[in-house]
From TrEMBL:
Any one GO biological process: SOS response
Cellular compartments per GO CC: cytosol
Pfam families: DUF4113, IMS, IMS_C
Protein name from the UniProt record: UMUC domain-containing protein DNA-repair protein
Domain (UmuC): residue spans on this chain: 10-193
Molecular-function GO terms, alphabetical: damaged DNA binding; DNA-directed DNA polymerase activity
Domain of life: Bacteria
Length: 427
DNA sequence: TCTGGGGTCCTAGGACCC
DNA sequence: TCTGGGGTCCTAGGACCC
């Protein structure tokens, strides 16, 4: 087996029930209770405590479909992204200190390269203890010779309580590894989604062990190159490196569903201005310029009886830009063309694409340098103010107190860590 | 008789992830 | 009443060029 030859030891560390655990850390009376966190607009369940899981609440389930008897004994929260981002930073910093190299893979997951570290079991235990002591959150650690194997090991660490949240796939003989992988459905493999699982199962490839021993060339013909790499990684042949510095985004999107249906153009414009402001700020933060913009609006697809209209337009910008005022001008003009009265709009958004680095960009022959510089200065000032007073402090064209399009967030917890007005009270 | 064919760029859409 | 948002990569197919 290839894994035996490979000397790499990659760990995947992730926080258990991350969003739900963040809420519990700051309100210990929630411990041992069913806790869920909802998506934007309080729509779907995106995080569950262990008790919520055993109560039968499913991931991504619309909250209104959860049985009332279960709802009643569940503590429910709107997503408090400021809190989760802050807790994430703390965890990632701790993990970074405990490994020679780290890839922050998502808000609650990190790959660590632990190759060559003696007594891996003790090191992994130490990781869990330090995160627990310093943040109050608990983690699982999966170790394997490739990222895909580390992910699988993490799955075992989560599912099998006898391992205490730590599982090193490479500690086991080939025979015992196969025994483990035979018990895991193929859909649990990183990169095998719902559709691919269905097709594989129909071919008789039901478990991870089945996929590991399948013919990669044949699968490539049927499914494409991605699955060929998955099979290689399962066999210990690394196809994916640790990415220590996140590559710049290739597109930046900002969109939201509205709390209530929106019918009038002026509310849509107001929402679009907010989306452009958010996207442009992200664009500037990563030091990029956008040369293509996509604007889209749509009605509620779940409301089958209502008239449906879903449309978007992708336009080439006259030059690569990062300035909110100019981007907003194009977005609003596009929106005016797309808008048709008589529909109940549910969602809108903007997507900045074709991003290029800002440095050494030659501005177009026909751009007015003075105008570009003034716009730069304005955007920079806006970023500074919003940095200091919160993202909503300064926006374009906001009609104070009349946000008919804003999200439902009726169950937001306090911003314990990021807002000095909401500091936790000591008792 | 036989009516090109290979390369490149772009876009839309599928599939996946958290 | 109430159904998330923000990303990535790959592929197929059309347009275009010589």
């Amino acid at each position: 087996m290839g894994s035996a030859a490979s000397s790499k030891r990659i760990a995947l560390v992730d926080v258990n029930n991350f969003y739900a655990s963040c809420e519990t850390v700051f309100d210990p009376t929630l411990r041992g209770r069913s806790v869920v966190v909802l998506s934007n607009n309080d729509g779907c369940v995106v995080a569950r405590s262990a008790e919520a899981k055993s109560a039968g609440i499913k991931m991504a389930q619309p909250w209104h479909q959860v049985a009332p008897s279960i709802q009643r004994r569940t503590q429910v929260f709107s997503s408090n992204y400021a809190l989760y981002a802050d807790m994430s930073n703390r965890v990632m910093t701790i993990l970074g200190d405990l490994a020679p190299s780290q890839e922050v893979y998502s808000i609650d997951e990190s790959f660590l390269d632990l190759t060559g570290i003696p007594n891996l079991a003790r090191h992994a235990t130490g990781i869990g203890q330090r995160v627990g002591q310093w943040t109050g959150l608990s983690v699982c650690v999966g170790i394997g010779s490739t990222k895909t194997r580390a992910k699988l090991a993490n799955y075992v660490a989560k599912k099998a309580p006898e391992y205490d949240g730590i599982f090193n796939l490479e500690d086991w003989t080939d025979h015992d590894q196969t025994a483990v992988l035979t018990r895991i459905p193929v859909g649990e493999v990183w990169g095998i989604g719902f559709r691919t699982q269905r097709r594989l199962t129909a071919m008789g490839i039901r478990t991870v062990a089945d996929l590991q021993s399948a013919d990669p060339k044949h699968l490539r013909q049927l499914f494409g190159v991605v699955i060929e790499r998955v099979v290689a990684e399962l066999n210990g042949d690394a196809c994916m490196d640790l990415e220590q510095a996140p590559p710049p985004k290739k597109q930046i999107r900002s969109s939201r569903s509205f709390g209530k249906p929106v019918t009038d153009l002026s509310s849509l414009k107001e929402a679009m201005l907010a989306f452009v402001s958010i996207a442009a700020e992200k664009l500037r933060r990563q030091g990029s310029l956008a040369s293509t913009m996509q604007v889209f609006i749509c009605t509620n697809v779940f409301k089958a009886e209502a008239p449906q209209y879903s449309t978007g337009y992708t336009l080439k910008l006259p030059y690569a830009m990062d300035d909110t005022v100019m981007l907003a001008r194009f977005a609003i003009r596009t929106l005016e063309h797309l808008y048709k009265p008589g529909f109940e709009y549910k969602k809108a958004g903007v997507n900045l694409m074709n991003l290029t680095p800002r440095e050494n960009t030659q501005f177009g022959l026909f751009t007015n340098d003075d105008a570009v510089q003034r716009a730069d200065k304005l955007s920079g000032t806006m970023d500074a103010i919003n940095q200091r007073f919160g993202r909503e402090a300064l926006c374009l064209g906001r009609l104070a107190g009349k946000r008919r399009w804003s999200m439902n967030q009726s169950r937001l917890s306090r911003s314990y860590t990021t807002n000095s007005k909401e500091l936790i009270l000591a008792r």
